[in-house]
Design a protein that fits this description.
Chain B: Keywords: Heme, Iron, Membrane, Metal-binding, Signal, Transmembrane, Transmembrane helix. The complex is a heterodimer of chains A (about 675) and B (about 160). By secondary structure, chain A is of the alpha+beta class. Chain A is about 65% helix and about 10% strand. Chain B has helices at about 5-10, 35-45, 60-75, 80-90, 105-130, 135, 145-160. The model of chain B is unreliable at about 1-20 and about 130-140 (pLDDT under 50). The chains are: A alpha+beta (about 675), B mainly alpha (about 160).
Chain lengths: ~675, ~160
């Protein structure tokens, strides 16, 4: 009965979603305020119904209700409670329900906190959200019903895929979807502006925080997924340029571009049409990502054929929204006025440059991801596009962009003074040169590119510090005054600096681990030692372990310095999950400062020996710590009162802070 | 075989083959570290035929192991890197190359980054020319047209808080 309630709530949500998509739109077109006013309550009701539906599925998973096919196929009564809950979205049907749940959440947020929005704009935004919601609810109900029943109910489930039985599943998909789906708000604002034929001041003020919020979540989601893959898959890689990773990376790249162009639009009323197009592209790429992953077309043409309905329905949704949006853009964009002139050397110019490179990078990843499909479709030839291609094309696009980053925030609007900015960056440049020299002299004299990469990372970090120092007036005013000004800087300035500094840390981690990683592959017996990067690792013993739903062989290793001082232990296991009889490898990771020792257990041999793969990964944690800094930057920027989501219009008497032209 | 993208996909339910062992085994490693280094570099660019987007260096599939051993045999017999790769391509086709060769088929793929970058740059440049030099030489209000002045006044009146 409860299950049917969840199913029914979903059907009802679809009906109301269709109402939300059509009726308020008709009201907006006829300028009937009473009809337009139905949009917000409808959106809130849809959210309530989908919440109920999602809650029912969660409960079914938590209680191991195997009369539900979806629960039976993806859960097991002996799983720990956390995995019985997170298993809800560890499968196709459940993850689509999570998708619409988050969409409804964002829609409800716009409905609830959009009081200061012009009614017409708000109505149109909610209507477009209603279109997206209706399409996906229809998709779920027609092809992916999570509430289908099974009779008689089996006694035991088939278990969640063991690789997903990890705390990562609790965090990664919800964050990723908050990012993906969060961009729908910017998309809906763009479509609303196109329908309306104008972009009011409220438009930019609203789109920017929503974009920033979605971007922050997507950053977190991708970083979390990367770290999860790193520790869970047991072979030490953290990014594979895999199509499914690219699917999440493309909206991030274009979302980053959108974030920056929205600044220009908000502050200078320029780049309006481009910002609007980017908002459409970013959410289109989110939809494309959903399609690529959900349809299975990328991973195997076979699985696409095995359930063609799903793939075709998502493809239809994709074509409808992307095609429709771009058509609308082509028809209406010219009616929007552009403004805000600026010289090439200016803050605006720097942000345009940022957008140019990010757009090229997005296009590169997009074409690289889809190209094998295209070639196969048109000529039947099979080719592969993998990591070496992306390293060779994406990498060079990033270098000039990263070099330019510290200049951007220091240039003034309209017309900047490049030599003056360069003078201010002289300290950052000095530290960067010093880092290159240190790397060449003390780490590896032959690794020239790595040294330059480290220099680039320090340059980014130093640029971010310089940005704040210059804006606080360090060096030009007495220190106490500068300190006071520093504390009083707008939050969005700290956001920018944190974001750029985080980027520097991430680059440093990537360069260090790519260039200086060490690896040993050895067959070891208890008592054997291996030396790596100044550590000595001794194979202690293998002990059998029993978990709630798996059995494991756990190998323990002793870590010591090369001189023999003990530093602790690390253990790596091979698990067999009993329900599926599926083996997994649990890597052993020990962090020393920012570097990690990574131990992965391979095949066991007779007599208690094993094949062991050991890596030393210098500074690898900086890759993710950098993204944490970016996220903090995002939230700090969001807390800026001018940008606070749903903040009421600022009072007219508000004091203007010095140099208030912050950059987010 | 293990699949790195699994975590991203598996939110949606791909099936996993059972992971058995991991990639390069100690018995495959060549004694000469220089040759081994070359073998690893070559392996990283060759696709495991039965895996998704995984190099033979990363894959634990048995065919990947066979290919790794084959690569090492060819290297030990004195072939250059290109000869080894050409031999593997002649047996398995272009599909094995994770970095596709530059050919009429892949010309669009390889030129995308440059096309978009140059195309975008040219567009920006041409628009700047079309705007006339006023955009470049603008220095405040002097170059605003009457219409722009009106819009500016309107914008300021509408939106005093937005700096």
């Amino acid at each position: 009965m409860l299950i049917e309630t969840g199913h029914f709530a979903l059907v009802l949500a679809l009906a109301l979603s269709l109402f939300q998509a059509m009726v308020p739109l008709a009201g907006a077109l006829r300028n009937d305020e009473r009809v337009m006013a139905t949009a917000a309550p409808t959106a809130l009701s849809v959210f309530a119904l989908i919440t109920l539906s999602f809650g029912v599925l969660l409960a079914a998973y938590y209680r191991s209700d195997f009369s539900v096919v979806n629960v039976f196929e993806n859960s097991h009564s002996q799983q720990p409670a956390l995995y019985r809950i997170t298993g809800t979205w560890g499968n196709h049907e459940g993850s689509m329900l999570l998708w619409v749940f988050i969409l409804a959440l964002f829609t409800a947020l716009v409905a609830a906190f959009g009081r200061s929005l012009p009614l017409r704009l708000k109505t149109l935004v909610l209507a477009v959200q209603g279109w997206v919601g209706s399409a996906f609810l229809l998709f779920i109900l027609l092809t992916s019903n999570p509430f289908a029943r099974l009779s008689p109910a089996p006694m035991e489930g088939r278990d969640l895929n063991p690789i997903l039985q990890d705390v990562g599943l609790a965090i990664h998909p919800p964050l990723l979807y908050l990012g993906y789906v969060g961009f729908s708000v910017a998309f809906s604002f763009a479509i609303a502006a196109l329908i309306d034929g104008r972009m009011e001041a409220a438009w930019a003020r609203w789109v920017r925080p929503w974009t920033l919020l979605a971007w922050t979540f997507l950053t977190a989601g991708i970083a979390m997924g990367s770290y999860w893959a790193y520790y869970e898959l047991g072979w030490g890689g953290w990014w594979f340029w895999d199509p499914v990773e690219n699917a999440s990376f493309m909206p991030w790249l274009s979302g980053t571009a959108l974030l920056h162009s929205a600044i220009v639009m908000e502050k200078r009323d320029a780049l309006k049409i481009w910002t609007l197009l980017l908002a459409i592209i970013t959410f289109s790429l989110s939809l494309l990502g959903t399609f690529l992953v959900r349809s299975g077309i990328l991973t195997s043409v076979h699985s696409f054929a095995s359930d063609p309905t799903r793939g075709l329905v998502i493809l239809a949704i994709l074509v409808f929204f992307i095609g429709g949006a771009l058509l609308l853009f082509a028809l209406r964009a010219s009616s929007l006025k552009t403004g805000g002139l600026f010289a090439p050397i200016s803050r605006e110019g720097a942000l345009v440059l940022n957008n140019l490179f990010l757009a090229s990078a997005t296009a590169t990843v997009l074409v690289g991801t889809l190209y094998p499909l295209m070639v196969e479709a048109f000529s039947g030839e099979k080719i592969s596009v993998g990591e070496p291609f992306f390293n060779l094309t994406f990498g060079p696009l990033m270098v000039p962009l990263l070099v330019a980053v510290p200049f951007g925030p220091l240039l003034s609007w309209k017309r900047g003074d490049l030599p003056a900015v360069a003078m201010r960056l002289v300290w950052a440049f000095g530290f960067s040169l010093l880092a290159v020299a240190v790397s060449l002299l003390f780490v590896d004299p032959t690794a020239v590119f790595a040294a330059l990469g480290i220099g680039l990372a320090v340059w980014l970090f130093g640029g971010a510090v310089t940005d704040l120092a210059v804006k606080a007036g360090v060096g030009r005013t007495p220190l106490p005054v500068a300190m006071r000004r520093f504390v009083g800087l707008p939050r969005s300035m700290f956001g920018t600096a944190l974001g750029h500094a985080g980027l520097g840390l991430t680059v440093l981690g990537i360069v260090a681990v790519s260039a200086f990683e060490q690896e040993r592959i050895v067959a070891m017996k208890p008592g054997d030692s291996v030396d790596i990067a100044g550590y000595s690792i001794t194979f202690d013993a293998i002990v059998p372990v029993r978990g709630p739903n798996f059995v494991a062989d756990r190998a323990q290793f002793l870590i010591a310095t090369a001189e023999g001082r003990a530093l602790g232990t690390v253990s790596s296991s091979k698990r067999i999950y009993t329900a599926r009889q599926m083996p997994t490898t649990e890597a052993g990771i020990r962090t020393f400062a920012f570097s990690q020792l990574y131990v992965s257990l391979g095949d066991l041999s007779e007599g208690g020996g094993a094949v062991v793969r050991i890596w030393h990964k210098p500074l690898i944690t900086l890759i993710w710590l950098g993204t944490v800094l970016m996220m903090i930057g995002g939230f700090v920027s969001l807390s800026d009162r001018r940008l606070r989501v749903g903040a009421p219009r600022a009072p007219k008497s508000r004091l203007r802070q010095p140099q208030a032209e912050a950059t987010g | 075989m293990r699949r790195p993208f699994a975590l991203f996909v598996l939110i949606g339910g791909l099936f996993f083959g059972p992971p058995s062992a991991f990639a390069v085994q100690p018995d495959e490693v060549l004694d000469d570290p220089v040759l081994e280094e070359r073998a690893r570099d070559i392996s990283a660019g060759l696709r495991c035929l039965v895996c998704q987007n995984q190099s033979i260096d990363d894959s634990d599939a048995s065919i990947a192991r066979d290919l790794r051993i084959l690569v090492r045999e060819r290297i030990e017999s004195g072939e250059t890197d290109e000869e080894v790769v050409d031999y593997i391509v002649s047996r398995y086709g272009q599909f094995v190359l994770l970095k596709p060769v530059f050919s009429p088929t892949t010309i669009l793929l390889w030129s995308t980054p440059l096309l978009v970058l140059l195309g975008g740059g040219l567009y920006l440049f041409s628009r700047r020319q079309a705007h006339g030099n006023s955009a470049v030489e603008t220095d405040g209000a002097a170059s605003l047209t009457a219409e722009e002045e009106a819009r500016l006044r309107k914008a300021l009146a509408n939106d005093p808080s937005d700096k």
